[in-house]
Amino acid sequence: MQYPIGDVRSRFLNLGEQSLRRAGSGREARQIKTVGVLSPHPLIHLGFISHPARQKQLRDLSLKIHSHPELGFKEVKAAAWLSQYLEQNGFSIERGTCQLATAFRGSYGKGRPAIAILAEYDALPELGHACGHNLIAGSAVGAAVASKAAIDQLGGSVLVIGTPAEELYGGKIIMAERGAFDNVDAAMMVHPSGHDSATIQALACLSLEVQFLGKAAHAATRPETGINALEAMLLSFAAINSLRQHIEDKARIHGIITEGGEAANVVPARSAGKFLVRAEDNAYLDELKERVLDCFVGAATATGARLEYQWGKERYAPMRNNPTLAGLFQQNMQSLGRKVELTASGRVGSTDMGNISQKVPSIHPTVAIVSAEVASHSPDFALAAASEAGIKGMLDAAKAMAMTVVDLLASPQTFTKVKEEFGKADS
Ligand SMILES: [Zn+2]
Ligand SMILES: [Zn+2]
Asked: What's the pTM value of the predicted model, to 2 decimals?
């Protein structure tokens, strides 16, 4: 059965409040059915995420992941717990999908349209879940299981794609290359943040590893025989600092020195560093790449040190936010009482979801779990990821994603619009 989209939403909006108050009451749930509320939106509230026992399961799952932080590609426990939860809720599971041990693919329903909800569950070195990926995981499986009622009524399938190693290796980039998103019609995930926003700005990003090879010498007695690799690195930083004044606003270049000599009385024979170059789009990243490299080449020429470098294999693509998907998510999240901006005012770096958004119509909204001043990747954010506000954000994100799945399944016209926007170069 298919419902016109406006109809679905108006039924939800008219009855959502009542439905929420009535959640858990069998008699009233029946009453709502008898007055003809067949829209899956209230079913999501009544039947799944608003049920205290279901909420507790999602809370426990996300807090368990939070208290067992695992780094990228080592998320063995998290992947197992999430897969098990989905399996217990009627999903078919493919473990170790895309030849990645901690990736998985859960599916419910058959065929197209296939809507993917992405789960991240990796932690950060030292800081644990300071990016809140435990909440991303909980909201993804919660939304997917809540969508089952809609799949049963409207057809299609909902997938949970477990994407490891977002922080360190860009697991989604590898999975996209290995075909994980080839038969997917739309993709979404929600990231915890200091803002409620339906879209994000994420930059194209490429890593660069550099080393200079010089010649060691006594720094006092025979400095004229040495070639100073550390000076080459310092000159590179000076050149990049100069370059930075004359690049586009959103572009970023930043790096660290990982090796700069062993002893103060020895001319360093080797220096090494790691850098990231980011830009708003791939074309400008290509341009910037050459200009950054020139900074190192110039420093090598000036000092006589030999330059060796290697660009990262995986390029993080910029995020393409699908306007219609973002609009649906915004309205759904607002129906839960949040004020959600459509255009992100918060800053982000880069995400491997950007690569998915280049292949499939996608959104990567953010849900506020802290005030805007608290930065992610900080100890305070790690605390927030296990707080009541964090759990509430996770549950709201799960509901709003499930409602967005319903909107897409209920209205083929809307889905067509999503695809048309994706087909245009600048959406
Ligand atoms: Zn992060
Ligand atoms: Zn993150």
From this structure: 0.84
